[in-house]
Fold:
Amino acid sequence: MIRALAVFLMLAGQQPARDARPPVASAGGVIAGVVSSDEARPRPLRRVRVTLNGQALDGPRTAITADDGTFVFDRVAAGRYTVFATKEGYVPMAYGATRPGRPGAGIQLADRQRFQLALQLPRGAVITGTVVDIDGQPAQGIPVVVLARRFTGSSPSGDYTFTSAGVQAITTDDRGAYRIYGLPAGDYVVAARPTMGPGGPAGTPGTILRTMTRGVASTRSVLLSQTFHPGTSELGRATRVTVRAGEERTGIDIQLEYVPLATLRGSVTVPAGFSSTRITLARTDETAGPAGGPVATADDMGRFQFPSIAPGLYRLTARAAPGSAPAGGRGAVPGGDAQYAIADVAINGQDVEIALTTQPGVSIAGRLVFESARGATPQLPAQPIRVPVAAAIGAWPLPPLVVDGMRFHVDGIAPGLYRMLSIVQGIRAPIGSWWLTSIAAGGRELLDGPLDIQQSVDDAVATFTDAPSVLTGTVTDRAGAPAPEMYVVAFSVDRRTWFSGSRRVAAVRPTRDGRYTIANLPPGEYRVAAADLDQGEWFDPAVLDRLLPLGAPVTISSSDRKAIDLTVR
Structure:
């Protein structure tokens, strides 16, 4: 009996441990679905290219729908995925997106799960027409683009600019005809853009031509300009074209236009010891985009010029920096701040002469106040702090804020109206352990509106805290799965605070498990909503107006910690 037991134990000891057994390979899950047309009577769409993306994949996987619109991705590892569908003549869409161009909702797939989805593609709209030259003859080889009004926060007005609608430019054929298809429903401006030749005016598409007078080339030039439907070089006078899904708009014709070019000449007077005077020219009318304009440098006599300037409204800004004087010229000014001159000018085809005289920049100075809930030592890290978020049209950005003990100052500011371009440092993320809660001067909060700086201020107060308000929560879809593709937007109910870079409007993407945190919202009444938005679109007043009745109400007080869970509807 004892011997038999010993043999049994010996044999049992030769068996491999349970933990050492090779794991059973996972079969993965399945993502399947059907793609149909988005119309009153949907029909299956065949030959749709469906793309699957996810972190668990080595690269995107692609499937083509069958005649009945179906597709299948099998052996998909557990994880989170997005599905995107495209077909010629239709508007590309992501699964769960509320409109074209949005990332859509993710799919949380478990092992061995089969996820079935339905995706609808709107039929793209079409805009067609002809482009003719100034004599009414077909203009061949002219690129035609459609522009859509988008909220950017970087246009001169700080809100909208016309930008590419996301479809490729089409070149006119030998009849001057063009056809642009696959457009989402919406409002557009159609523009013919003659190819820019060398030496063309900055920011103004077109081809420069010399005029002839009695067989002799003139010194005057004209621009075969970008022309908007029906025939104007001014965006404000262009006719908006509205299309519905699947609609074909014909007869959107354009007659090209020549516009006279002018030279802007000038002189700038600066104090002794200033040199390196740079002059910028920026458009301030609706045609302007976020890009900067041309730059010139004044010569030793202070003279400068901008040739080949198209008609429009412009802002001229000169900046004279202290430094070495020209040879045989005025003495140098060691140190010191830059000086500025700003002038608005209208160009209408006639040469313009202008004289500028620089003036010292203004400054903002004041004291630092630290409000600590933990008795922390009032101190900021030794790093430059930018209130960089503001810039005047065509001018120079604000210099960095300099901290000196318990005081601060910003020197050499060009006088003018400034606006927020992004979030002030210290508001959405701390500076060290401190959060900026206020910059006040003359009884006015400088962070809650455009900044009009016309004279120096020495009584400003910048307040910091180490106990900011905190808003947290989770974002889930209807099935209860995390929805990290959405943005969580928290915004004040006060419409006056709805501007680009407002500290009372915040947006974050949740983490992969659907959690979000927004810190340092000023006290007030807010709404919190999950939305499928483009970058920066949460500053668009129209978007906030749409989210206002949908958002969850919350009241924020100083140092509050509130939790709001959201479900994507």
